[in-house]
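Shipment paperwork, digital attachment
Item: protein structure file
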Amino acid sequence: MAGTVAASGVGTASATESTFFEQYSGVVTTRGHYDTTWYGDVYVTDGNDRTNYETTGTVPGVTNDESPEELIVFVHGWKHDAVQAREKFRQVTEALRGSDVTAPVVGYSWDSDGETLEWWDQVDVADRNADKLGTFVRDLQAASPETDVRVIAHSLGAKTIAECLEFFMDRGYDTSVTSVDLLGGAIDDDEVATDGEYGQAIADHCEQFRNYYKTDDESLKYDYRAAMWDTAVGHEGIEGEAPHNYEEYDVSYVESHDDYPKRDVGCIPDVVGNWE
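Attachment content:
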């Protein structure tokens, strides 16, 4: 594991991060691992490879010898710089604590800055982060095999976790996570079906896969459809036959695309309730 993880350590966290770490445990980060050429192709930056990642704060089982019963990983969506990602981690942790969840929460922070990366670049980077997220999950489970890993992904973060499950399948790994919960998932609605790109990986590499969608999600209804020429699973739900472990819920009470992970106005209480 030492060859895979470049741990930044708690001592490197800024004062702002330390405040955030009072809310969530730590961060797995791949910030700066990708860049684009002048003609728009995404490439891996010097010193990085397909599977490496760094950590800040405390990531139980990776940065210490703790072995929590459960650990929650939150993967943010598109157009988030590092500060915006940390704010999202704080929000989802606050929502989880409000639903009486005491398990450590770890944020997964990846290059999705809307100021510097176009949509298609962000999709590419979200895809490439799958191997890194998958490597982190495998490292964690190797160090702490009794820990149940739950992954919550918002928006384009759905691409990373779906591809992560496929990473496990394609390499013949027996790695599995306890649950995956998509909040306003920005992947095509047919890709999660049994005969879709991720159907078999969903069936084989997580115990429960849940999709929370919003039929009046304007970001997915207009922006996603215009970019992808298809419907997002977070907009209208699945198209096609669902894998045996797939469930989905219409949470149109959530006010906007950005609100899914927020306390009081989002759907985290439903997410937690479905874990029980």
